[in-house]
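Service request form, structural biology core

Requester: graduate student, group of Dr. S.
Request type: structure prediction, single chain
Budget code: on file
Notes: please return the result as structure tokens.

Sequence provided:
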Amino acid sequence: MASSAPPRADTPAASPALLTGLEPAELPADAVEVGRIADAWGIKGWFRILPYSATPEALFSSKRWFIQPTERGAKTFTGTLKLAIKEAKEHSDSVVATAHDIPDRNTAEALKGARVFVARSSFPSTTEDEFYWVDLIGLDVVNREGVAMGQVKELLSTGPQTVMVLAFEAEGQPQERMIPFVAAFVDGVDLPSRRITVDWQPDY
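Core staff response, request fulfilled:
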């Protein structure tokens, strides 16, 4: 009986031809990277996404995702492709989805590592006191006396609350400070003015 040779270590997991059915697209100007495709899920073309947010509502509200290849490792496509999502749902600590033109597991495996983007305009609406993290990044933070606290560099979820990480300079050196993003310390968020006012002092 003839035996087949083992696959080469540098053989790509999937052929780029598997994704030729997807539509090339321009990344929207307001695109936000919301997650990364981890691997195929099941045998019917579903795939698993690792979202960057603990509440990945943007993945559920939008039926148009945009993907770009991973920065590292083997690439199965180039440029930006559009995924027309049929269904997305939560599964354990991730999200699973199925899309048109992804008919089977082999095609889904070709998506592995892809970066997932969603247009900010398709995010669900928020209430008056709700904000998406992406909208807070880059905002200037000042206290009630008008003293500059820094600029929002990132936000961290510590479980019971979210913490703003601010970047600022002191004596010519880059520094960071953390302020809980809770009503006790945050007086208001003015998105049009790109400013957050806090009850906080520089020496806290």
